[in-house]
## 1
Amino acid sequence: MVKILPSLLAADFTALGEDIREMETAGADIFHLDIMDGRFVPNISYGLPVVEAIAEKASIPLDVHLMTQEPGQFIPEFSGMGVDMVSFHVEATPHPHRVMQLIQSYGMKAGIVLNPHTPPDSIRYLLPEVDYVLVMTVNPGFGGQEFISSCVDKIRELDGMRKKHGYDFEIEVDGGINDETAGICTEAGAGLLVSGSHLFSSPDWRKAVAALKG
């Protein structure tokens, strides 16, 4: 079953608690939290205090996406807040396996993120142990970008590797997800869809979430 992950970076931060409640009522499955440090990506989002505030308000799981250098930082803190999933970019560390194990040691699911230019083969040896792979279908750092259609082949390739070897990792997609691209991604093998600008700008969130699920 397809799960929808609203990206809270697109929410109204002056009414964040209200947006969280309304999006949960609309049928969201998991909240996606983008953490940017201004170094790995050319933008800064929010840090631990905001994540903690979100965790106190949310009743569905939280998926933290680290767009940061040194992604091994603050893993214990995320766990203590009740975060369920943490993903990091394979390009951000020389020791991705170590970071993956650290996340899992705190009882959270570990995800590896691939930038649009990064091939699935670069994480081939992590796939037996990783919990999910996040395929970026835009360049990370800013919302509202256009979907990069060539990344769909990457989703298919990951799905093929999963089936061939009997792996059980999930495939998550982030960037330019709307009514049209959602179906393209799920058909290619994705089961977790992140949507920010499209969802939060929709006049009816319940219908928007349902449409993405197909």
Note: The chain is about 35% helix and 20% strand.
## 2
Amino acid sequence: MMNIPPSINTIIQQQPYPLLFAIISGSHLYGFPSPDSDYDLRGVHILPVREVIGLETGNEFI
């Protein structure tokens, strides 16, 4: 089990939309982090229907 710093939870809680899930990717996921490695986060947000359906394009990532 990986030791996740509390700052990761803070970042997740600050997101503008609720998260369906979030994962750590990159070197930490593969088990090869160096002492100065950062954390790569990926997740899926639950967006309001009005922002998903329509003719206007929105942000592809946050």
Note: The radius of gyration is 15 Å.
